[in-house]
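Review form for a predicted model. The reviewer records the input and the model, then writes brief findings.
Reviewer: anonymous (R2)
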Amino acid sequence: MVKRRDLIEKLERIEYLLEYLSREIETIKRVLGIGGGVFTLLESGIETYKAATSEYKRIISFENTIRSMKMDSISKEILRILAYMGPMNITQITMELKKRRGKASRLTTTQKLKKLVNMGIVIEELRGREKIYHYKANTQHEDKLRKH
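Model under review:
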């Protein structure tokens, strides 16, 4: 099994190589005095891989943070749902929890969300009569949570 640290190192190596490849393509274009065509395709592919690599590193970092937090498994799962799926209302969060855990109650979800809002890692936004919840990515809060 690959360790997270090894994954991060491999992703950083991939990022370095993609950046190197980008510079080499620029040099070739400049020396040959041409652009477009296959170069555009290559550059587009490199940018796509850079974005994917960066996102994968963010996910690994987020999962490390979640695992180190001193909180219950339902709250951690709510954070994952909001971080990966984006803003949701209470019904959507409860339904997603039910899919992932087999059972979930609106009352428990509401209680856990209130606690996460009070901790400052989830934002509650009022849209008309509906409350929408967002994960607030903030390393200060994540550092605080690891200590609790």
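Findings: The chain has two domains: 4-68, 73-147.
Further findings: Residues 113 and 142 are 16 Å apart (CA to CA).
Recommendation: see findings above.
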